[in-house]
Amino acid sequence: MSIINDFSNELAGAVEKGGAATLLVDARKRYPASGIAYAEDLVLTADHVVSRDENLAVVTPAGDAVPASLAGRDPGTDLALLRLSQKALSPARPAGSPSKIGQLVLALGRPSRAGIQASWGVVSAIGGPTRTGRGGLLDQYVQTETTPYPGFSGGPLINTDGAVLGLNTSGLLHGSNLTVPTKVAWAIAESLSLHGSVKRGYLGIRTQAVELPESARQSVPAGRDAGLLVLWMEANGPADKGGLLVGDILTGIAGSAVTEPDDIFAALNSETVGKSVKIELLRGGKAQALSVVVGERR
After folding, report:
1. Were both Cys, which of 27, 181, 191, 196 would link to 72 (CB 3.0–4.6 Å)?
2. 240: Cβ–Cβ under 8 A, 6 or more apart, which residues?
3. Is the bond into 129 cis (omega within 30 degrees of 0)?
4. Residue 248 CB neighbour total at 10 angstroms
5. pTM, full prediction
6. Which of 281, 260, 144 is nearest to 209 (CA)?
7. What whole-number distance in Å separates Cα of residue 27 and Cα of residue 82?
8. pLDDT tens, 165-187?
9. CB-CB neighbours of 129 under 10 Å
10. What distance in Å separates the CA atoms of residue 268 and residue 199, rounded to the nearest whole number?
11. Distance CA 32, CA 110 (A)
12. Do residues 162 and 93 make contact, with C-beta atoms less than 8 angstroms apart?
């Protein structure tokens, strides 16, 4: 029994630690949702629970209601950042290592003033990149066997030490509850805090996945047996200006192999916008490399 009691106490302790940075977010007509203290005056939550831009408030673990404003949102990843009128929070502690399949985790929420709520389970899957139901591309996601009670969206997924593994949301894929990993969520939160939005790169092309001819595989890095055939190119777009041609087969962008159209979006993150990236391709069966200045997708 002592082992069970010790285990139970450890879980309760983790909830207490994680709960100190789990907040109530009042930003929609229906019941409140949850949020994570990203900084002393910033709260990261799910975008779909922020249905209004005014009269926003965050309730702290101590029960204090603090006025907030919308600092930025990124519908494609279902993340939004709220800025408080004062520094009143204890920032969450991100986990030192990412989630692992089979890992015991807890989902936390603060959907009412009654206090913190929790459910526990294991990490069942890790995937990505994937298209979301909100027209975006999520670099990585985590699925768990935790129970997503009403109002849990925007709250944290924590490990048994109380550190945050990611943000839980039911708004990314219809019928599915996913967790946006801390590495992804924190990077987006930083961009939202600085710019109010997230920059995403584009080349201005449409492509189709194709297998590389056997005769051409010796010209590309080992292991690359597929690429992306350029079917269409925007006139005067980034790819056009960079010298790409319809009929080229892309094999790599910024050093990463590309075998599916979504690989392009994954390679063109916010840090590449406005910068020159190396595009590896096959043209007439011969390997070439071009430098293309990445545009910003609107």
Report:
1. 196
2. 204, 233, 234
3. yes
4. 23
5. 0.81
6. 260
7. 10
8. 999 999 887 768 999 999 999 99
9. 16
10. 10
11. 8
12. yes
